[in-house]
Automatic annotation (TrEMBL):
Keywords: ATP-binding, DNA-binding, Helicase, Hydrolase, Isomerase, Nucleotide-binding. Residues 30-336 form the UvrD-like helicase ATP-binding domain. It comes from Leucobacter manosquensis. This is DNA 3'-5' helicase. Residues 337-624 form the UvrD-like helicase C-terminal domain. The lineage of its organism: Bacteria, Bacillati, Actinomycetota, Actinomycetes, Micrococcales.
Amino acid sequence: MSDFELLDPSGLPVGGGTGANGTADDPLVDGLNPAQARAVTTRGPALLIVAGAGSGKTRVLTHRIAHLIREREAWPSQILAITFTNKAAAEMRERIEGLLGDASQGMWVSTFHSACVRILRREAERFGYVSGFTIYDSADSRALLKRIIKELDADTYGFTPANSGSKISKLKNELVDAATHAATMNENDPRERLFVEIFRMYEQELKRANAFDFDDLIGQTVHLFRSHPDVAAIYQRRFRHILVDEYQDTNHAQYSLIRELTRPIEPEEVERLVPPARERELDASGRIPAASLTVVGDSDQSIYAFRGADIRNIVEFERDFSGAEVVKLEQNYRSTQNILSAANAVIGNNFDRQEKRLWTSEGDGERIVGFTGYSQHDEARFVAEEIEDLHRAGVAYSDIAVFYRTNSQTRALEELLIRSAIPYRVLGGTKFYERAEVKDAMAYLTSIANPYDPIAWSRLLGAPKRGVGAMAEAHLANFQEANGLSFHEAMLRAEEVTAIGPKIRATVRGLGEMLVRASRMAAGGGATDVAGEDAAPAPVGDVMKLVLDETDMIEKLRAKRDPQDDARAENLEELLAVAREFDVKQPGAGLLAFLTEVSLVAAADDLDDSSGTVSLMTMHTAKGLEFAAVFITGVEEGLLPHQMSVDEIGGINEERRLMYVGITRARERLYLTLASTRATFGDVSVAMPSRFLQEIPEGLIDWRQSPGEVTGRGGTASRALNAPRSPGSNGSWSRTRTDSAVSFSGGGGGSGSAAVSEPASGNMQSALDKWRERKRLAKEAQASGGGFPNLVGGSVRDNGDLELATGDRIRHDEYGDGRVTGISGSGTKRIAHVVFDTVGERKLLVKLAPIEKVVE
C-alpha cells in the first residue's frame, strides 16, 4: 500500500492487491527493462521520469496508471492524466482500456484545455459566467481583434490581428491580464498605451460575449483556484494521482495549474468539504496531503520556447517538488547506436539538462551519411537520388522523411523531387508555389506575360490591398471586355470608367502603368542594341524585383512585425532567388520560359504511388514522429542553428535540442546534408558548416562529399548543375550534361483573351455577377489544363492521351531513341521510365514531354 492512502467515494479505505512493487510474474511489469519497471512501480509525492527519445515513455505511463488502479491505490476517477494533443490522449486511453478493460472507466485522460473546460463549465457561475460560455477559436479571436483595431485606428501604428493576438497570447500564458500589463508598461510609448487599450477592449468584448479564448481556458482555471480555495479543494481532493506527459513543453500557465492541483488542502478548507473529510484522509497536521504528481518528459526535447514553453519547469522539478524521485529511461528501442551516439554527442554540449545517454542493444547499424553540395540544388539532387536508391532497395516512400529548419528551404527540394518523379507531401506547411504570398507575386508575372488573364489580374488587384473592391473590379473587367482591350489597357483608361470613384481610378491607372513598364521590360522593350538588333528580354529577376519594389509587398509584410508575416516575406525573397537562379541557368530565356517552368513544377505534384509519399517537414513538426530514413538538410550556420537564435538567451541550446530531436527521429538511416553556397534574399552567399556537425565524432559520419572537398575543388564541379549521376555509377558522379529527370518542353509566346462574351449591362449587381461568372469559367479552364491559364498559348507540347507500355520504343526531341521500362502514376500525372540509347535512364511526364511512339 502506498504512503498516500486513498478512499473510495463512500469514504471506505481502499487496499489489498499484490502491493505497489509488483511481482516477478506481474503482466504490467513483465517485458519492461529495470528502469521502466521502477518508473511503473515507484510511489511517492512526486516522480520525474526522464524519458529519452524512443525509450517507451507512453508504455511506461499507461502501465503506471494501470498499475495504480489494479493495485487498488486509486479509483479511476481519482486519476488525472494530461497530454498535449487529443490524439495522444485518445491513444493513452485506448492503451489503458486494453490493459484494464472496463475497470478504466471514469478516468480523466485529456489535454490541458479539455480538462480546464470541464472544470470551468461546472464552476463558471462562481466568477460571473454561465456554464454555456462560448470558446473562441483563433479565427474568432482574429475577427474580434480586427474590429477593435479598426475602431481604434490602431493599424496606423502597425497593429494587426496577428501581431496583437500573438502578444496577448504570450501575456495570458504568463497569467498577465490587461490591468497587470498596464501597470508595468512604458507610459511614454504611444504604441504600448494603444496595445493596452486593444488588450483591455479584447477582454471586455470576450466578457460581454460570455466567451473565453483558448489561452483563457487554462489561465482562468488558475485564477479560479487562487480566488476560490474552496473550489480548488474539491479538485485537489478528487485527483489523488496526477500524471503529465511532455512536461518539458509546459508554459507558465500550465505549470501554475499543476501547482494548484497538487497543493495540500489546509485545515480551514478541510472543514468546509462536502462530504466531510474522513480521518484517514488527513495527516498529523489536519491537512489532506498533496496529490502524487508524476511527470514524463525530456529536457533535451524542449523545442517550443517560441510558444512559451519553459524548460525550467522540468530542469528545476526536484527543487519545485520536494522529495521527488527521478527515473531515467535511457534504453532506446527506435534507433541504431551510431544514430544515438551522434545525438548524445550533440546534446552533451548543452548544460541546461539532466544528464543521460541513450543506448540500444540492437547494434551499431549503418554509419551516418554526410554530403556537402555546391548549392542548395546540388544538395537537393543528392537527397532526391538517395531517396531513389532507398526506394529501389525496398524502403517505402512513406518511411522516408526530409527535415529542414525553415519552410523557405522547401523550394529547391520540391523542384528536384518533382523532376525525379518522387511523390511527396509537405507536413505542417504549404507547398512553396501554393503559398498565398508566392501566388500573389506570380500573379503579377503571369499578368505581365499575358495581360488577358482574368484570374491573375483579379488576384494582383488585391495583393497588397489597395482599396479596389469587388464592384470596382467588376466594372473595370466589364469595361475591358466591352472595348476589346487587354486588362492593362483597360487600367490605363480607368478615367473612362465613371462608375468607380476618382481615387480608385488613379490607383488603378498607376498600377496599370507599372504593369505596362514591366511588360516592356520583360519583352525587351522594343529597343535595339548598338548593333541594331532587338534588345534581349530583361532578366526575370529584374522584372520580379521591379514588381516587389513598386508594390512594397515585402516591406508591408515586414512592417506588420509578426513572425508569420516575416516568414511570408522570406518566401517572397526566396521567389526572387528562384528567378535569379533561372537567369543564371538559362540566360536570355525570358519571362515566358520562367513561367512555363514554374507552372509545370507547380502542376506536376501529387504523383500517385502505391507505397505512399516522402514526407517533407520542419524539424519542429517532426517531433513525435519516426521514419526508417531521415534527411536533415541545411545543416549550416545561420540555418541550423538559425541566425535569429544566436543573440537570444538560451537560443543556441534550443537549436541544439532541435538538432537532437531531428537526429533521433531516424530508425535505421540518417543523412546530414548542407550546401557551400545558398541563395537567400535574392543573393548567393557562402554557407558555413554548422557547429553541430563538428560536435559529432568523425568516425560516425561517412562523408560522400565533405565540406573540405567542396572548398578544395573551388566550387567548379556542381553536381546539380553539371553532373547528374549516370546509370550504374555506384554512387560516383560523372561530369555529364544536366537534364531534368522529368523532362518538359515548352516555350514561345502567345496570349488570348479568356473573356466570356456577354452583353454589357449597366446594372451594378449584374456587372458583379457577370465578372464572377467570367472568373469561374476561367478557373475551370485553368483547372482542366493545369498551370497558369493562357500563358504560352498552343506552343506547349500536349501529347493528349498518348498510351505507352513497357517495351515501347519512343523518340525524344533531345535525347533520341529509347525504350520504356515502366509506367507509374495515372491520368495527366503518368510518368514514363525510359532508358535512352545515348543518355541512359530518364523519367518523362508523358503528357508534356517532347516524345512520339516509334513503330518497330
